Amino acid sequence: MSKQQTNDPQQQQKEIVLIVEDDRSLRELLVEEMQDAGYAALEAGDTAQALAKLADHPVNLIISDLRLPGASGLELLATMRQQADSPGFIMITAFGTVEQAVDALKQGADDFLTKPIKLDHLRIAAERVIQRRKLQQELARYRKLIGDHGFHGMLGRSAAMQRLSSVVRMVARAEGPALITGESGTGKELVARALHEESQRKDGPFVAVNCAGIPPELLESELFGHTAQAFTGARKARTGLFEEADGGSLLLDELGEMPMEMQAKLLRILQDGRIRPVGSNQEKQLDVRIIAATNRDLDEEVRNGRFREDLYFRLQTFAMHVPPLRERGDDIELLVAHFIGRFSLQLHRDIHGISDTALARLRAHDYPGNVRELASAIERAVTFCQGSEIDLQDLPERLQTASQSMDDDASQIARQLLSGDTGTESDALPSLQDVELAYIHLVLKRLDGNKRQAAAALGIGRRTLYRRLGIDE
Fold it and tell me: Strand pairing partners for 18?
């Protein structure tokens, strides 16, 4: 008798494998083997029974004989592949041939095993197929998420990001140089790539160079190339990055770090499109759109004599500013979901979400490191998370400490208000929004984070509570 039936609630959380085999002895052996391997196993003697099981259970993997009474294993496979998010499929047969294997794989089977089945090989194949299917489904889900709210990798549904996407589309129509400004970690290179992909140059090369990462004495050679023997160590001629980007776009990242002498040469290139490799007497005419990016305030750099005013004015024609993450509140949850998906795939973790408490803490942070800082925090959380959902203790310590500080501030403000103590005349009075949020946090803390009870205690609806906390229901 098989071990198919179980009342163990934990067993119901296991990945489910459906064994479709008309040989009862072999079927029961495979069911037992899969259960010993840690899976919940179902069984069916033919395709009709298999479809009935599939209608009632979220199966992760089907292991099916090729030859079955009635419809064959290939027909079952074809039926499953017509469904979205279909389970993994391993075909087995006693009549295995290369042709049958190729046919099954072409029709969508993930693997093909022949009888007599080696049970250790079956275990390995089952684990590999289930994991691959899970990763494919997660990847598809997060690609859809990006597709719904993304623009060439720029994730965001906030008004600030929608405006930026609109500006990129318009600037992409032009051919003149573009300037992208914004704090470190905001995603300026993503904006540059989006600008290239939206332009008529999208089939040409996109070349990016970090001006701050190249020593000043080597920057001219890197950008313009050099001839053989142009300087000590130049044994042969080298093509520069400008020439590599011919017909496409060249991103000069961290342009504010470029030496003044090179700024003058860049201005000349913007005017006539010609470069001269180091050591050469010949100029080359190129067709390159220059996209500059910087986290510096170029107005201030010009005032302090560190950036050429004429170059700045030339770049200002098509200037775009990437908003910092603290001005993109509506995008936090979207970015968190994206990074959970991405790092779960990379680290082979099964993380499906984040708690309201942790999400509220992430929403409240001001992110001096912007999107790059958020990505780092989620990578750390995915790595240390012990369950299927990220919680506050999984976040970096600086965020946990900030959370405790917020609770302490909330308690202090609330107690002062309840006691009638408004402080001295020199003390700055808190805003109404700060007082309201502080009291909400105090009530939540008293009620162990139970939002239903907190909403009742505050005399507001749960939706109103979520909105005040900046959480989407």
Answer: 42, 62
